[in-house]
Amino acid sequence: MAANLSKKSLRSPLAEARGLGSAKHGTEHWWHQRVTAIALVPLTIWFVFGVIRHLGADHAAFVAWMKSPFSAVMMALTAAVTFHHAQSGLQVVIEDYVHNELAKVLSILAVKFVCYALAAACVFSVLKISFGA
Amino acid sequence: MANGSGRPLSPHLQVYKFEWTMALSITHRITGVGLAVGTLLLTWWLVAAAAGPESFARAQKFIGSGLGLLLMFGWTWALFYHLASGIRHLVWDAGYSFELKEAELGGKIVAGASLGLTILAWIIGLAVW
């Protein structure tokens, strides 16, 4: 306590011990954003090549692509990690610019629900094509 | 400044002289939001493919239309910009490249790489298409 007073810390000793900061979540959100960002580097490069190779492709060619287990897993991972990264990034943008508490919470919830619904639709579509006849 | 707690707040943006690296910073955020909107097209593409040949042909036709190509071009650049700028952020997170000269060089690399990779991807894309 004395040490705390002498360096005029603005944080209480308990807050310092917990190390969770003003948002009460510590570095978890920040860390998840970095983990998904690192994962998206190879996934994005694979995705760009994949899309270029299937520009104007007909349905049969696209289905053949998604029938390959490697491509299906990569596409499902790309969609899942992209949406995880998107909702976590959009949350930060909303937290920075929306200051009305109710509007902030509601818009973050809406973004998360939409992102996870779209992610589920993408992954389901890939699996349907991959396992389909 | 009043923020209820009596704790000091940092001054707002207007007090700083504008630097082009500031534009790069906000562009990272804008491209991120733009790419999030672009996931709607990705979802349409995959869901249409799962639904069958007719709906997939409709999605492919939209992507190949003038508006579709314009959107795809914008998203290509946004994707490469956000990718390059994101790697620049990861370098900072690892504790490197904070010196002014290095930071400005990083900014130039990001801007150049995003434009170069976009043009390269479209040259390859149009050649394949």
TrEMBL record, chain A:
Q: In which pathway does it act?
A: Carbohydrate metabolism; tricarboxylic acid cycle
Q: Is-annotated flag, keyword Iron?
A: yes
Residues spanning the membrane? 35-56, 68-86, 106-127
According to its record, how does it sit in the membrane? Multi-pass membrane protein
Q: Which domain of life is it from?
A: Bacteria
| Database matches in InterPro entries | SQR/QFR_C/D, Succ_DH_anchor, SuccDH_FuR_B_TM-su
Instruction: Kindly give the Gene3D superfamilies that the UniProt entry links to this protein.
Output: Fumarate reductase/succinate dehydrogenase, transmembrane subunit (1.20.1300.10)
Cofactor(s) for this UniProt protein: heme
Pfam families given for it? Sdh_cyt
Quote the subcellular location field of this record: Membrane
UniProt keywords (A-Z) are: Electron transport, Heme, Iron, Membrane, Metal-binding, Transmembrane, Transmembrane helix, Transport, Tricarboxylic acid cycle
Task: Supply the NCBIfam families for this chain.
Answer: succ_dehyd_anc
Subunit info?
A: Part of an enzyme complex containing four subunits: a flavoprotein, an iron-sulfur protein, plus two membrane-anchoring proteins, SdhC and SdhD.
Q: What does this protein do?
A: Membrane-anchoring subunit of succinate dehydrogenase (SDH).
Q: State the protein's name.
A: Succinate dehydrogenase hydrophobic membrane anchor subunit
